[in-house]
Each structure stands twice: as structure tokens, then as C-alpha cells.
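Anyone have C-alpha cells for Probable GTP 3',8-cyclase? Sequence:
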Amino acid sequence: MLTDEFGREVTGVRVSLTDRCNFDCVYCHNEGLGDTRGPMDPQDDEMSADDVVRFLEVAAEFDVDAVKFTGGEPMLRQDLEEIIERTPDGMEVSLTTNGTFLPGRAEALVDAGLERVNVSQDALDPEDFAAVTKSGAYEKVLEGVEAALEAGLDPVKLNMVVFEHTAGYVPEMVDHVAANDGLQLQLIEYMPELTGKPEWNVDIERVHDWLAERADEIEHREMHDRRRYWVSDGSSGADDVGSNAAGRGMVEIVDPVENPTFCANCHRVRVTHEGYLKGCLNRNDDLKPMGEMTKPEIRDAFREVVADRVPYYGEYMVRNDDGEWEINEKYLEEYAGA
Ligand SMILES: Nc1nc2c(ncn2[C@@H]2O[C@H](COP(=O)(O)OP(=O)(O)OP(=O)(O)O)[C@@H](O)[C@H]2O)c(=O)[nH]1
Ligand SMILES: C[S@@+](CC[C@H](N)C(=O)[O-])C[C@H]1O[C@@H](n2cnc3c(N)ncnc32)[C@H](O)[C@@H]1O
Ligand code: SF4
Ligand code: SF4
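Reply: yep, here.
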């Protein structure tokens, strides 16, 4: 297993299979890849299935035991089933998708070896959903969630970015997952780092406080030290503390912004659709090419990207005398022009 200079073992990889998307969400960071708009057909710059599989085989040599496929919209890749099928044995395979292509395809993904899915759903109202995603596909997303559950994926996590446009939906979404077996909710702090618009921020601590009041039980996940809140479905009357029966739901908060604890527990390396390794979501100055993607080249690049990994908050970004975050000069010099 490879460990970076800050003692963070790399146990997972997040592979962006494309930067194309059928949505145009107003908040989208596109995993640091830029604009999702553009042609929807397969593009020449995307890693082939063979490249992705070769990369995963090398990652497995380094004891990486989980892969997340993301994008853009990863389900625009027609070879997704093939890629999942060819993922090395023993590697947990999960997918983050906007859900629109799950109807009719969820079962094939499960047959290929998909174990978990996260579906982005930012609202419980078609109009607000359309305003956030610039798409009218709300019904398709609900059908997608249903298709994932029917295909046996459990849990199905709903991803909701908490920002000005969606904050009002948090209580309703929490009730929704508490009342529906198989669903969990992931509340993601809006990250303005790559998209701008810091004015859309919502104080995520207020959401933590509200959930702490609402929850029966609070857990800490090793990854990123994320907090998980177990909530009961008030409407079903199943609100006994400690109840594990139906009528309880899990809500996890993903709060990376200005959070050194989150970054100190970050165990993933990313891969862009073009086949560059990336040590941190928020940075584009540490991209490492993998050459022609032969195994020796992939091995070397993987070792290098891990060696250069730096926790973003607390190290790459540090607080100045006024308490504001600024780039640590040390890293600015090191990576300038990279
Ligand atoms: N800054 C930062 N944000 C992250 C990180 N991991 C997840 N996020 C945010 O959370 C979003 C959703 O994450 P997902 O792709 O659904 O997966 P996940 O929650 O990290 O992983 P699982 O819970 O294991 O499925 C990402 O696109 C980011 O916006 C991370 O390591 N750093
Ligand atoms: C970039 S998308 C790619 C996968 C797929 N298209 C989807 O939307 O699920 C992955 C996740 O990033 C989240 N995300 C995008 N921009 C974000 C931002 N600025 N802040 C926080 N999360 C964001 C989305 O909500 C989604 O759950
Ligand atoms: S669906 Fe995902 S990739 Fe597409 S615009 Fe929305 S957040 Fe970005
Ligand atoms: S180091 Fe980068 S990728 Fe890891 S948690 Fe922090 S911001 Fe996210």
C-alpha cells in the first residue's frame, strides 16, 4: 500500500470516465475538469476501456481496494458495463450518477459487478430540480433511483448539494430517506473553490446542529472523519431510540470546505477522463500524465502522485494572520508551472 508524506494511505481511486454530461447543474465542479457542456458523443480524448482496466490492475497491485466511477455523467459511456466487468476481483465498484440512464440499465450494471450507487437528487420538486440541473429529467431520476433499488443495489445513496437553492429541502429529504427503505442521504457542502459563487454557501454547521437534534444516533466514518446521523421516520411512529427496523434512515454529511480534519483523512487518488492522475479534487496544478499508459508508466506515475499528495486544507491552504485561508507559499513554488 502506498502512503503519502502525511501518513495518508491510498486505498481508493475515483475515475472520471468522461467530462460529458446531459445536465448542466448550476453548481457543478465536474470533479475539477471544467465545463460539462459540449458534444454528447464519445470523444477521442477519453481513456479507452483497456486504459481504465490497465490502470485499475496497477492500482490493485498497490492494494487499492475500491474504485468509484464518476464524471461528467459516467453512464454516457456505453462501455461502462464492460469496464465494471473487467475491474480486478476484490475491488469494490461504486458509481456516482445523475440517475437518468439507470432505468433499463441498472440490472446490467449489477450483473457486471456494480456494488453501490450514489444518485444525485437535489430537490423533491420538479421545478426546483429543473432550475438547479437545467434539465427537466426529474421523473427519469426518480425512475432511476427505483431501478437501482429493484436491481438490488442497497443502499442507494442520494447526493444532495446543500447551497442556497436547495437548503430549504433538507428536512424533506431527510424525512424522505427515513421513510423509504434502501435509501440513504448524503448532504454535500457546496464547494465554491472550482465554481466561484461563494455567496451560495450555506453554513453547514447549522445543518449538523439541526441533524444532531433530529438524530437517534451519530457515528463517525473513518473516511474523511465524516459524521453520519441515523434518523427515524416520525410519520411511521418508529422513533424509538436505537431502533434498527424499517423507519430509520442514514444521513451523512460531506463537509470538505475549510476542513483540515476532512483532508487529513483523505485516502483517494483521482484520474481524469484523459488519463491524468490527480492528488486532490480542488487542485489542477498536480496533474500527472501516465504516458502511453503502459503498466510501468502507470506504476511510476502512481508512485509520484502519491508522493506529492498534500492535504488541501491545513497544508496547501493555510490560515494567515487575519485568520483567512491562503495558498502556502511552499507549495505554490513547488508546483508553479506544473
Ligand atoms: N473536496 C472533496 N470533496 C469530496 C471528496 N469526496 C467526495 N467529495 C464531494 O462529494 C461528492 C459526492 O461524492 P461521491 O462521488 O458520491 O462519493 P463519496 O461520497 O465520496 O463516496 P462514497 O460515500 O464512498 O460513495 C463529490 O463529487 C464531491 O463534491 C473529497 O475527497 N474531497
Ligand atoms: C461531478 S458529479 C459527477 C457524477 C454525476 N454526473 C452526478 O451528478 O452524480 C459528482 C458529484 O459532485 C457533486 N458536486 C458537483 N459540483 C459540486 C459543488 N460545487 N460542490 C459540491 N458538490 C458538487 C454532485 O452533486 C455530484 O453528487
Ligand atoms: S449531473 Fe453531475 S456532472 Fe452533470 S452537471 Fe450535474 S453535477 Fe455536473
Ligand atoms: S485533500 Fe483534496 S481531495 Fe482530499 S479531502 Fe481535501 S480537498 Fe478533497
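The chain is about 30% helix and 20% strand.
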